[in-house]
Amino acid sequence: MALTNEFIKSKLTEKFGEEVYNFEEPYEMLTFEAYKDDNLKVLQFLFDDEELKFQFLTDICAVHYPDKKGQELAVVYHLHNLVDNVRIRFKVFTDINQPDVFTATALYQSANWMERETYDFYGVNFVGHPNLKRILNVDEMDYFPMRKEFPLEDQTRIDKDDEMFGRGGSIW
Amino acid sequence: MTQQVMSKNSGAGYIKNRIPAMSDVKHIKLPDGSIEKQTTTLNLGPTHPATHGVFQNIVEMDGERIVSSEQTVGYIHRAFEKIAERRPLYQITPLTDRLNYCSSPINNMGWHLTCEKLLKVKTPKRVDYLRVIIMELARVADHLICNSVVGVDSGALSVFLYVMQYRELIYEIYEEICGSRLTTNIGRIGGFERNFTNTAWTKLEKFLAEYPKVLREFENLLTRNRIFMERTIGAGPISAERALNYGFTGPNLRAAGVDYDVRVHTPYSSYEDFEFNVPVGTTGDCYDRFLVRNQEMWQSLSIIEQAYKKVQEFKGADAEVYHADIPEYYLPEKKDVYTKMEALIWHFKIIMGETAIPAGEVYSSVEGANGELGFYLISDGGRSPYRLHFRRPCFIYYQAYAEITKGAMLSDAIITLSSLNLIAGEMDA
């Protein structure tokens, strides 16, 4: 039986009920969220289940949404079932002041560096990670450069107009 | 792990808790009766002829054997993901060039395909085939470098120098199509900047005629070469299970025996129209990786030939199609911008960010020369991405290096490093 998005969704809701939510299918990829404390449970279930078998971790990254109060950081997992060739996207949101998320390194070795990279750029503190330290930036750095509060350009400049970049604000 | 303090003031006074690299290494005491009392620390890199890129390996050695090792990457981190958040889509293509710079066209095409997926653009078949030709040429160029460098690291320098001339033929084709050679910035969202010229086709024909002979000779020199086999068989092996767990993709995963290829699993750019095999190995060692890459070059050649035939079947006006008809996203040709009103308007609109870019999130991947190159793009409807993340295959599989070289000889570790096809530019983004 082909592994359809509806089937994965029903499996997940059957197992976790209300704890998985916000099911969407942007560009055909099933996307859902869970509470951050449940992330390992969900990943483990997706890994172990006989029919789901999401055993290949494609990618981990974080996204910063400064406007979502209490849910500023999203950790996004891309998982792949290589047998049925289905991909899903799984997100957990966390407070930026206490960005503790459980590590997936016990399930996937590949999560090790991906989580280090995520920590490096967004400061997501992966609880239980064997070696959580910076990977691409210098060790001395004491801020997380990919967060939105660090703009690429000096925001006090008035000779450039943000409207040209398609988002609000004008100098006139 | 304590949470580091975040200061809003970037730059000012952040030098504290400096972590020394080499001097901090703890030696391992060796058992009584060993020649040495403790293990030796050896520092390979960041700039070392054997690393073929800027990254560091600190290895603990018991004689010639590696006891443990630690990898440091990030020496050429250029913050592409951050830069991309401030750039319009069409200006991100040059950033992707500098990921895996041995096969930039694949990265470029991967990025165009991601944008096209976001914008829901369908490209004409001819464009797809032209892209396939370019991508497969890039794959051949990349595998050629990787495999001949494995030769170099096992002591066969002449093979490397010999095949270099034929990579040159590929670069000349790029040059004819887009004007540059290494960091190509080839194509645009929706297609190519111009049609392939007759010179480009002549050069492609020359390549297709000359290259098989060279590749056969290359194989004759190495594949059954006794020294080469002794050096590579059993060096740096990985099982299929471990490879999957470590997130291996591309030839390295296939050498371990898993037939996962993005071109087959999730066809893009009309790869479903082509007949080709996915070569797999068994042991995942350097020799299998070498064989898989060689076979892939043959397959690529066959794909290029098929694509060239298909392109020739387009006649008349169809043969002039080199981009999708999407004026709101495709940057018009410069000469049209200067002479035609409509092209001028669209050019202006695209450059000034006046065209509507849908909000949404999309993950798109292509089979890069060393694995699955993924682009995770979140658009908030603005002119530039809200977030762009590159899934860089070699960043992910390089983690396994410590495990697969544990207990190996130092010289095997060197050859494993080159046969994994690590590109520092891609690793560090």
Task: Tag the structure with descriptive keywords.
heterodimer; A: 172 residues; alpha/beta; Beta Polymerase, domain 2; 7 strands; B: 429 residues; mainly alpha; Cytochrome-c3 Hydrogenase, chain B; three-stranded antiparallel β-sheet; 17 helices; globular
Q: How are the SSEs ordered, and which strands pair?
A:
The complex is a heterodimer of chains A (172) and B (429).
Chain A: H1 5-16, E1 20-24, E2 30-34, H2 39-48, E3 56-64, E4 73-81, E5 86-94, E6 100-102, H3 111-122, E7 125-127
Chain B: E1 40-44, E2 56-62, E3 65-72, H1 80-84, H2 93-97, H3 104-119, H4 125-153, H5 157-178, H6 198-222, H7 226-232, H8 240-245, H9 250-255, H10 262-265, H11 286-312, H12 334-339, H13 341-351, E4 359-368, E5 371-380, E6 387-391, H14 393-397, H15 401-404, H16 410-419, H17 424-428
Antiparallel strand pairs in B: 1-2, 2-3, 4-5, 5-6
Helix pairs in contact in B: 3-4, 4-5, 4-11, 4-16, 5-6, 6-11
What does this structure look like?
Chain A has 172 residues and is an alpha/beta fold. Chain A has a domain at 5-102: NADH:ubiquinone oxidoreductase Nqo5 subunit (Beta Polymerase, domain 2), CATH 3.30.460.80. Helix content of chain A is 20%, strand content 25%. Chain A has three helices and seven strands. In chain A, strand 3 (56-64) and strand 4 form a beta hairpin. The longest helix of chain A has 12 residues, at 5-16. In chain A, 41% of the residues are buried. The model of chain A has no long low-confidence stretch (mean pLDDT 86). Chain B is mainly alpha-helical. Chain B has a single domain (80-428), classed as Cytochrome-c3 Hydrogenase, chain B. Chain B contains 17 helices and six strands. Chain B has helices at residues 80-84, 93-97, 104-119, 125-153, 157-178, 198-222, 226-232, 240-245, 250-255, 262-265, 286-312, 334-339, 341-351, 393-397, 401-404, 410-419, 424-428, and strands at residues 40-44, 56-62, 65-72, 359-368, 371-380, 387-391. Chain B has a three-stranded antiparallel β-sheet. In chain B, strand 2 and strand 3 (65-72) form a beta hairpin. The interface between A and B is large, with 53 and 64 residues.
